[in-house]
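Subject: design request, 107 residues
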């Protein structure tokens, strides 16, 4: 019985690895997550963009056009909120999704 169990462990490991790779391939891109989760407020002319333009100026209003965003700052703002932006929970945007959005905005 023990030998049979030990013999099946490599097969189980391969199956889990395949499942993990398939899930990663199906994961939405940072750009598509940004469009779904962020653009409703951060599109040109949208509320958050107008607020950022008032606070930081027109050149820093659109997040996708900025080259000075810090990944840690993005995560902090998303998780804790800032001014009129409510925090987003890990149920609303998972850590992996937030990482993808952050990579999209900073690369």
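Subject: RE: design request

Done. Sequence follows.
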């Amino acid at each position: 019985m023990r030998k049979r169990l030990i013999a099946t462990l490599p097969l189980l490991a391969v199956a889990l690895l395949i499942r993990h790779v398939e899930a990663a391939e199906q994961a939405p891109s940072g750009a598509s997550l940004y469009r779904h989760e962020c653009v409703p407020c951060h599109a040109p002319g949208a509320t958050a963009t107008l607020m950022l333009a008032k606070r930081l100026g027109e050149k820093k209003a659109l997040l996708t056009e900025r080259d000075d965003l810090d990944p840690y700052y993005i995560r902090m703002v998303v998780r804790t909120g800032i001014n009129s932006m409510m925090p987003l929970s890990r149920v609303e945007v998972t850590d992996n999704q937030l990482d993808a959005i952050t990579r999209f905005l900073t690369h």
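The CA atoms of residues 40 and 46 lie 7 Å apart.
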